[in-house]
Every structure is written in C-alpha cells, then in structure tokens.
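Saturday, quiet lab. Running sequence design on the structure tokens for the scaffold JK sent over.
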C-alpha cells in the first residue's frame, strides 16, 4: 500500500524548524519542499529512499524536536472524521482503522490494563539510526497530535503517562528535554510507544459530534484508502522512476537527480530502463502529458499558468510540445 506524502512533508517541515539543512539535501536530488504536491501518494520504499538522503547525519534524538512541528491541518477528511465521532473510544478506533492516512509508518493498537487504556505505537524500525530517527519523529508527532486534537474538540487534556521504546539519552540535559515534553513520569525501554490514560476517558462525549458529518467523512476516508492500494509490493523500476517524478509540481528532477535519489548509478539506471523497453525521457514526457491534460480539463488555470506548473520557461515551448502530442494547440483543446 502506498502512503500519503503527508508524513514526508511534515518530516521536512519539522527538520527545517529543528535546524536541519534539509533544503540543500532535497535540492541535491531535484526536490523542492514548496513544490511537493500535497495530493500525491508515495510508496514506502521510495519514501525511505528520500529519508536516507535528508536524514543522513541527523542524530535520532533530533526526532523529539522534529515531531513537535507536525500539525493537524494536513489530515483533512480523517481529522473531520475524528472530531465528529460520538466519543473518544470511537475516535481512537477510527484513528487505528485509518492509520494509513496519517504520518505513521508502524502499527497502532489499544491496550487495556487495570482500568487504564493505552494507545500503543510499534515503530517499523528501531535497529538503525535512520529508523530510530523516524520513530522518534513519529512518536513525538503523535503526542502533539493527541494534544492538538483534544484542544480542537474543546476538551481538557487528561493526564497521560508515556512510555518510549528506546533507552534514555545519556546526556542529562537532553534527558531533561524529554521529561519537559513528555512529563516527569516518562519511562524508557518499553516494548512500544505507549500513551496511557484512565479508561474513563473512553466514554467522554465529543462536543462536535455529528452523525451526518461523520458518515460523509467516513466515505471520504474509505475512498482515500482505496486510492492508496497498489498491487505492487515491490514496484518496478519504471514505476519507481514515475512515482519519484510525480512527487512535485513544476520543475521535474533530472535523470541524474533521480538516479541519486533512488541510489542507482545514472548509467545503470539508463541501462536497466532500456532493458525494460523504456527510458527516463519517455517516463518524463508521459508524466507531463498526463498532467497537462488534467490541468487543462480542470479549467481553472490559464495556458500560461499550466506551462509554468509543468516546468516550461515559455508558454510557446509548452504549446509546441502539446501540439506534437495531441495534434492541436492547448487553446484548441480547451474549447
């Protein structure tokens, strides 16, 4: 299953605010944060390829700060679904059901013990520095999500006991930062990230509950899950290149930048695509053709603006290419 690009965008935004030179790293592989298409979806393997570039040299403990810059705004239908549920029990269950629409890459679950309930999160990888960095970001971001969601629903934030699935930092000052963020009773070295509440919170009614709105956004969440499904557990090389070029609007990464992002020597990438009866140029051109038609049929942009969105420096160059592809000019097609 593919994922929303949301997690990657939040990671980039958080890295910026945490003082990581993420923009120069992105530019080395032909990406620009402002040009990333928020509606695009990404295969986990491609997301990991990008993470290996932007996360290089970043200490895992930086994730504590990076995750604090994740926000509710990008969650769209899922956010509206959660705030219109009847009570917090249903909200938690829906959050787990539609986890694929969040920034999380691991597995969410609920645990019950001694009149307590925990929202548990098992990160995908805690054995590498890069996996640990992502886990720290996701756990920190989840804690912020819980707090922001309570505030948005007009509810008082309950007392939360937190356990983290990694050892405490050796630096005492860093350890104090963890306690400042997660609370004085924070515990380390747990089996998973666990956010413990009194189970009475499950029955708390949500003031903004609305059954009709809930049903509307439930259908939108189901549709979005369907969009993320893919038959390819391991995408083909052609699909990997296509997916990478689709990540952003405007200027498309060069072949050299794409090869660097996918960690394949450019010469090898060219040869392997030839063996698959394809080429970087063909994939790029087909992508631009598809985007051009979508933008024209949307009927909200001028020809000049479409040319700019597709990375053309001059509308005349776009007009020439469009006529070569479809046998008529964009304006003729527009009519």
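Result came back. Writing it out in full:
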């Amino acid at each position: 299953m593919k994922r929303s690009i949301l997690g990657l965008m939040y990671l980039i935004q958080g890295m910026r605010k945490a003082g990581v030179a993420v923009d120069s790293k992105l530019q080395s592989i032909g990406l620009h944060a402002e040009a990333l298409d928020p509606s695009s979806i990404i295969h986990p393997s491609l997301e990991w390829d990008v993470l290996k570039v932007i996360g290089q040299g970043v200490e895992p403990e930086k994730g504590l700060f990076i995750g604090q810059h994740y926000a509710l705004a990008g969650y769209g239908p899922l956010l509206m679904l959660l705030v219109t549920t009847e009570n917090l029990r249903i909200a938690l269950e829906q959050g787990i059901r539609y986890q694929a629409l969040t920034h999380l890459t691991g597995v969410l679950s609920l645990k019950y013990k001694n009149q307590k309930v925990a929202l548990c999160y098992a990160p995908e990888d805690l054995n590498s520095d890069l996996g640990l960095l992502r886990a720290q970001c996701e756990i920190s971001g989840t804690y912020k999500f819980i707090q922001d969601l309570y505030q948005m629903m007009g509810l008082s934030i309950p007392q939360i006991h937190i356990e983290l699935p990694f050892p405490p930092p050796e630096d005492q000052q860093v350890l104090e930062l963890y306690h400042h963020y997660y609370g004085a009773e924070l515990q380390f070295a747990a089996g998973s990230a666990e956010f413990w509440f009194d189970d009475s919170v499950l029955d708390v009614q949500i003031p903004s509950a609305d059954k009709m709105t809930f049903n509307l956004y439930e259908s939108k969440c189901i549709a979005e899950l369907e969009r993320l499904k893919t038959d390819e557990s391991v995408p083909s090389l052609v699909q990997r290149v296509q997916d990478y070029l689709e990540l952003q609007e405007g200027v498309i990464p060069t072949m050299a930048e794409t090869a660097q992002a996918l960690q394949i020597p450019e010469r090898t990438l060219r040869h392997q695509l030839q063996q698959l009866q394809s080429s970087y140029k063909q994939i790029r051109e087909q992508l631009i053709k598809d985007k051009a038609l979508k933008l024209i049929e949307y009927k909200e942009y001028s020809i000049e603006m479409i040319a700019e969105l597709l990375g053309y420096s001059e509308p005349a160059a776009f007009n020439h290419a469009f006529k070569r592809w479809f046998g008529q000019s964009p304006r003729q097609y527009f009519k």
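Notes for JK: The mean pLDDT is 91. The longest strand covers residues 107-113. Ask whether to fix the surface positions before the next round.
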